[in-house]
Amino acid sequence: MTHTEIPALARAAFAADLSCTPTITLRGGNAIDEYREPPAFDATLDAVTDGYLERFMWGVGHLDAPSWRHYLPSLIDYALRHIGQASNVTDALLNSLRPPDREPPRLASLSPEQEVMVVRALDALAFSEASAHKELACQALEEWWSPGALYRPAAIPPTGDPR
């Protein structure tokens, strides 16, 4: 599977999350990062475009699990379309895929199908010759997403990628 095929499959895996309005938007996450009250979702202001992701990428770290899952397919799509470019958006995505997990969990909140899509995206970012994010993607894989991952609790085995 090429990195250009993964975003459509990720959107399908996250369809239920995409259909819900996020509790915290990326714009709201940015407000939290700046110690401000997060604004409510606004369909116009929170339309997910490359510009929106680039402007509000600091918000990724402040999302609750359902909101994070809502934005993951768009972040994956962005990262893979810009695979050869250094990008704060891709760095924010990759850092959100690293432990420690939260309480309530974000990483462990993914379905097996969603985990497969995350692993495929990480594989593309880690092992594509064109990738500008190899090191951080490899680190995320090693820490949580690969079999025998360093920091993933044994009670939560990785689903893996059934290639």
Walk me through the structure.
With 163 residues, the chain is mainly alpha-helical. The protein has a domain at 6-23 and 68-145. Helices cover 49% and strands 0% of the residues. It contains eight helices and no strands. The chain has helices spanning 6-13, 15-18, 26-33, 50-55, 65-81, 88-96, 112-127, 134-145. Helix 1 (6-13) runs antiparallel to helix 5 (65-81), helix 1 (6-13) packs antiparallel against helix 7 and helix 7 (112-127) packs antiparallel against helix 8. The radius of gyration is 15 Å and the shape is globular. The termini are close together. The relative contact order is 0.15. The model has no long low-confidence stretch (mean pLDDT 94).
